[in-house]
Amino acid sequence: MTLLIDDENRVRTITLNRPDALNAFNEALYDATAEALLAAADDPEVAVVMITGAGRAFSAGQDLGDMQERITNPDFVQGAHGFPGLITALSQFPKPLICAVNGVGLGIGTTILGYADLAFMSSTARLKCPFTSLGVAPEAASSYLLPQLIGRQNAAWLLMSSEWVDATEALRMGLVWRVSEPDELITDARKHAEVLASRPISSLMAVKQTMTEPAKPEIAAATARENAFFEKLMGAAANAEALADFHRGKS
Known about the structure:
Layout: E1 3-8, E2 11-16, H1 27-42, E3 48-53, E4 57-59, H2 64-72, H3 82-92, E5 97-101, E6 104-106, H4 108-111, E7 118-122, E8 126-128, H5 142-150, H6 152-161, E9 165-166, H7 167-173, E10 178-180, H8 185-197, H9 201-212, H10 216-233, H11 237-250
Parallel strand pairs: 2-3, 3-5, 4-6, 5-7, 6-8, 7-10
Antiparallel strand pairs: 1-2, 8-9
């Protein structure tokens, strides 16, 4: 199973479950996560959703094997939701969303934090947006959401440098709200999730909608800009070289 789902005290925990692939997103995981968010949105017994990862990673981002196949295989089969559907599900999710970053987070494993209402991070975890090292554009409306969340210069470094950011730096930036010791992360995140889940769902949703509604047109516009650049850059020289280096490293 690419996802594990657990319900307790009106908190639904969604655990990305491709630990051997460091929870990298392939089409199946994009689809399963989007479906899980849509189901949680419609479930009257779910007040809060928490996303975390199985094993030592939160998510290693896009599965680069999938990216390579998308470029080279004309018969590549996209998922029913795929990456665009996951981003839509995140941007439209009407209830509190908590991320518990238990290990490395690359790409969407970092940019998903732009959609989190609260983000918790293990003190040993690290985050990276590897877009320039892959020769591609930003994704997931991160070009809009991250400057809003952490300020222009922090976002510029994160999106342009392709360098790791540790938990101390992520907290300083405001990329995450709390840092916990590894064995306390889920307990800490759940404790706060259950405080929220004890409140009326209708009120939680009203608060979230009033906070997020103004950003929705900006998210859509940023996504369109990013997609246009991504289409132009994916498969171009810098991206092809980066993917070739990746595959040489695996062989």
